[in-house]
Amino acid sequence: MALAEPLGLLIAGQLGHNDYLKQQALVGLVAIGGSVVVSTALKVVTHRERPYLAYPDLITGKQGPTDYSFPSGHASVAFATATSLSLAIPKWYVIVPSYTYAATVGYSRMYLGVHYPSDVLGGAILGSGTAYLTYKANQWLRKKYKHQPKGY
């Protein structure tokens, strides 16, 4: 599901002969990949037990992942996707659904008992930050090498 955003931008850029959208597809892919790598590394470092494992008498009948909890990888990827798409196409009709989707993913992780609210918040900050830094790095590289993509 996370690859739908870069794939959609790539297809739209290809069909419309828009190099900017194709470039933003790559930016989105790097942001999502970076988010996955950093969230996985943080899980190994923090060793936070998942809520349904830590409180089995409060959260009963739940089964889920058995790896560590912080940060939420799902929230990280969802917010990286929403942020990179919103930066690529800064229109309200793109931003509102993107972040609504990301917030829904975050809520679902808590509802299912597989993440604490702080896990989701950490994932949201991580994903949004990764996407923003990737976007800014792309702008810096374009400026440094004086490259403006067609359609920008």
What does this structure look like?
Helices cover 71% and strands 0% of the residues. The protein has 152 residues and is mainly α. The chain has one domain (4-60, 68-144). 39% of the residues are buried.
User: Would you identify the regions where 5 or more consecutive residues have pLDDT less than 50?
Assistant: none
Count of beta strands: 0
- The tally of structural domains comes to 1
Major β-sheet profile: none
- How does the helix and strand content classify structurally? mainly alpha
H/I helix tally: 6
Tell me the Rg in angstroms: 17 Å
Report mean pLDDT, rounded to a whole number. 89
The string of secondary-structure elements, in order, is: HHHHHH
Which bin fits the share of residues in helices?
over 70%
The global form is elongated
Q: What's the N-to-C terminus distance?
A: 27 Å
Report the β-strand fraction as a percent range: under 5%
Main location: membrane
Domain Phosphatidic acid phosphatase type 2/haloperoxidase: 24-135
Transmembrane segments: 25-45
Protein name: Phosphatase PAP2 family protein
